[in-house]
Design a protein that fits this description.
Elements lengths: L1 H11 L5 E10 L11 E2 L1 E14 L4 E6 L8 E4 L13 H13 L7 E7 L9 H16 L6 H16 L6 H8 L4 E6 L5 E5 L5 E7 L7 H19 L13 H7 L6 H25 L3 H17 L6 H12 L3 E6 L7 E7 L3 H16 L4 E3 L8 E2 L4
Parallel strand pairs: 4-6
Antiparallel strand pairs: 1-3, 1-13, 2-7, 3-6, 4-5, 7-8, 9-11, 9-12, 10-11
Bound molecules: alpha-D-galactopyranose.
Length: 388
């Protein structure tokens, strides 16, 4: 943090008055269910984005990221807050600032912000939701605006959907906003009801494994999956009185699956519906401390994302499937949007070194470069960091 404060002083010649942190996230299970009215089960992690800021006396806004030093200071002002491709990474904070300014007339001065993230880029650990909510928290706090947390979360999702153009669900912003140390959240994305569940797996720990392959074209594929689900739903709605795939049980689906009339759409819907059931079941078995069945659900989730939803690819499959073979691993699956990025494994605490060694060997042999591993604490949501 000292570094970031120093960086702010070097660039803007003043002391920042506020420091904040927004986490990234993993998702235990419940993938590609959040825009289908289903359940998700994410947890915030101690990797995330730090930011420091200070109000200005004019209407200028200046943003600087230590992660994109060559991009330099991104400068605009309160009256010009449109998306601009030249502003690269800064469009995420800019979108948030725009919607805040539209809602709160008291934001009548500019500000300077410096950020630094330690979430690996393109790792599917939600660096974008992290910077959106970090910006929202910094700006509302600088202006003493008491904004409801859920409204801030929804605003982050709106930035993603309308400003950036990715039709994502609410999972990432929700967990970055509502995360709690040592807990995951079971969230019903239909009602937004949620429960905190301790991330206590007995002798087992979650390992995060990075393919180190950057996501490419993920946004267009993501939007394509979403519309495939909508088309499958429209077919099923001819027979079932439902608003989302999340309301359909597996038994109902099996009865009407062939009415969808298209194999690809049928498989997309089967993933969304079966994944939703697995997520509810994962919650039940965790309550009962049945980590073995929990692990089996992780494996089944990966298989469904690979075969039915087709969002994995060689790297994620090699990583998750190699981990599933390791003695002491109860289950492994991709996490987040897919296509590349990270997978998670539930591994016995004495077998972590083994997991890393065996998976690195198998992955490097098939893919040609090594994966990375992280062991991080489950964290609180976005927050101010008080000066010590
Ligand atoms: C991305 C989106 C989320 C969710 C996941 C897949 O992270 O931002 O809303 O859809 O993919 O589960």
């Amino acid at each position: 943090m000292q570094n970031l404060t120093q960086k702010f002083k070097d660039i803007f010649n003043a002391e920042p008055t506020l420091t904040a942190f927004a986490p990234g996230r993993i998702n235990l299970i419940g993938e590609h269910t959040d825009y289908n009215g289903g359940f998700v089960f994410p947890a915030a992690i101690e990797l995330g984005t730090y930011g420091v800021g200070r109000l200005r006396d004019d209407r200028k806004i200046q943003l600087y990221s230590v992660n994109f030093e060559s991009a330099g200071v991104m400068a605009f002002d309160l009256d010009h807050l449109d998306y601009n491709a030249e502003h690269q990474w800064a469009n995420y904070p800019k979108g948030m600032i725009r919607y805040l300014v539209e809602q709160f007339p008291e934001i009548n001065r500019g500000f300077d912000i410096v950020v630094e993230g330690n979430i690996p880029n393109g790792a599917s650990l939600s660096s974008s939701a992290s910077i959106e909510l970090l910006t929202g928290h910094l700006v509302t706090t600088l202006f003493h605006i008491d904004m409801d947390r859920l409204e801030l979360v929804k605003m982050g999702q709106r930035v993603e959907n309308e400003f950036i153009g990715v039709n994502s669900g609410i999972m990432d912003q929700f967990i970055v906003g509502f995360g709690k140390k040592d807990h995951a959240i079971l969230l019903d994305t239909n009602t937004l009801e949620y429960h905190y569940v301790p991330t206590e797996f007995g002798d087992y720990k979650i390992s995060i494994m990075n393919t180190n392959k950057r996501r490419e074209l993920a946004e267009s594929k993501y939007n394509e999956r979403r519309s495939e689900c909508e088309r499958a739903l429209a077919q099923l709605q001819k027979y079932l009185d439902v608003q989302s795939l999340g309301e359909i049980s597996m038994a109902q689906f099996e009865q009407y699956a062939d009415k969808i009339g298209d194999d690809v759409l049928m498989r997309r819907a089967r993933h969304a519906i079966s994944e939703n059931e697995r997520t509810k079941q994962a919650y039940e078995v965790l309550q009962a401390h049945d980590f073995k069945v929990f692990g089996e659900l992780l494996n089944a989730s990966h298989a469904s994302l690979k075969d039915d939803y087709e969002v994995t690819g060689l790297e994620l499959d090699t990583l998750a499937e190699a981990a599933q073979q390791v003695d002491g691993v109860l289950g492994a699956r991709m996490t987040g949007a897919g296509f590349a990025g990270c997978a998670i494994a539930l591994v016995h605490k004495d077998k972590i070194a083994d997991l890393e060694e065996k998976v690195t060997e198998a992955y490097t042999k098939t893919v040609g470069y090594a994966p990375s591993f992280y062991h991080v604490d489950i964290a609180n949501g976005v927050r101010t960091i008080e000066k010590s």
